[in-house]
Amino acid sequence: MPDDARLIEIKDRAASRFLALPGVTAVGIGGRERAGRPTGELVIKVFVQRKRPAAELAAGELIPASFEGVGTDLVEMGEQDLLGNPPPPPGKPEVPDMDTDTARRRPLLGGCAVMADLTWVGDGTLACLLKHRTDPSKVYALTNWHIIGDGDGGARSVVGATKVGQPTNQDSVTKCCSSIVGRYAGGALDTTRDAALIQLNPGTEWQADILDIGAVRGIHKITQAEAATQTYPVRKRGIRSRLTGGTVQAINATTNVAGVSVTNTILVKPHPNDGVPGGTQIFFAQHGDSGSALVNAAAEVVGLVFSAVLRPGQPGRGNATAVAIDVVISRFQAVEGIPVEVATAAVPGIVNTVPGAAAVAVPAELAQALAGHRAAEAVSAPAETAQAPAAARWPPGVDPPPPALFAGLQRDLDRSTAGRHLIRLWLSHQRELLDLVNRNRRVTVAWHRGGGPALFQMLIRMLSRPELALPHTLDGEPLPERLDRLHQVFARFASPALRRDLDQARRLLPDPSGRTYPQIIDALGAS
Predict the structure, then answer these.
(1) Closest Cα to residue 344, out of 131, 34, 97?
(2) 409 and 512 inside one domain
């Protein structure tokens, strides 16, 4: 048997020849199987859509029993499809009783949903977290390029500009409830990889963990000896099929996916799913699982899942393909010039924070009330709240108001004409209002310099603190005048419909200076 490097060279030549034949879907290195049992012999594995008798094959289409002295093993496996959304139609899931996991995860960790700010509405899975090898201020999330790099209508992510969120691509006025976690930092879908980096925003909390798997312990390059066993165990956690397990069929494979022959791939077949009690796993990965980290039994990342055999009736349906993690990391260094390494942890649950979060200017009149409210929460919160994981915090250091408070706010606003207009204003124009704050530079600057985020946070706190009152001034300016200036800049760039509703809202709003939440509600009813 040739040494490892020599065997890869032979496999590459075999791939060039065999993938040109009709029906061949992948060529890699793995163990031979006879009657479904591994023999331990290392061979070139040739994957075909369907095995056919020699009599049906044209001259030159027969796969020889060996290639350049290395045995071959013919395996049935259908065509690979990229695993981006959309998922199956409602009511027809590929995995029964399992919906896409679009839960918000804070701190950020592997195995959760991720979506770019493109016109495409699909999403995929965040694999794991990466660190810059020389710059501790830079932390990245890893996923597939076809998830965050490619959108509808030919849209493409732009390095440093395209926002990426978890679980959605929705931004927020105050950023405290924003889904945005970072920006696209580079990647590609080509013959060597389907991988993309997201540089996390300063202040983002993250863990070197993967949901349902735990702390990541490092990376591992699967050896030819390990692949020969046909029993090398791997797992992945994706947002569609959750935690699934399988075994490695081949490594260093060249696989035809969506018209591209991707090299250095790992082919995986599913086995009964240990992650679902009493369940039998049909798929290793499905639509939405793109970007999942392929992890071995030692909690080491070995690959990045990007495609699978999903079409009904095809042999090997449920098998999946990943790009080897060492190739993914080396390509970021070679192409984008970004030296990264997989973030690791000795135990799960360690929360890290991306350095460099910029301080938000808070008007002096609000600073004491906001700080006092935060301190009061830390003292008075029940034990189960005070000890809640970081994912439950909103924003960092402050417990989110319970849903009942917001339901109460709606009931209070519904009692007056002015209040009902505010509800209609938000329901009718929330997308445009958010876009103005997040995309129109003049509105963004006016909103932040005018103390908008701090004022909004104060109003939220007032829902549960009836003794808190708005100040008479912001940065020394009378509060009504500050609100007038904010109204003017929004109205200037608003659509005619939004401008009309904003003007009406400003006429209906009473002067809130010095008033508590109950007093503001009463004043709305009298306006």
Answers:
(1) 131
(2) yes
Tokens of 260: 């591209």
**Six token digits for residue 351:** 């929360």
Residue 398: domain span: 364-526
- Which pLDDT does position 150 carry in this prediction? 80
Burial class (CB in 10 A: 0-12, 13-18, 19+), 427: exposed
Cα 495 to Cα 517: distance, rounded to the nearest angstrom = 30
Question: In terms of domains, do 288 and 397 share one?
Answer: no
Q: Are 443 and 490 in contact (CB under 8 A)?
A: yes
Domains of the chain: total = 4
Strand partners, 303: 324
Are 205 and 230 members of one domain?
Answer: no
pTM check: above 0.90: no
From CA 263, how far away is CA 15, in angstroms rounded? 10
Same domain as 179, residue 307: no
- In this predicted structure, the answer to whether residue 262 has a pLDDT above a threshold of 90 is yes
Determine the pLDDT at residue 292: 98
**Domain finish residue from 184, 210, 236:** 210
Q: Stretch 27-35: mean pLDDT, rounded?
A: 93
Longest dimension (CA), the chain: 91
Contact between 19 and 256 (Cβ < 8 Å): yes
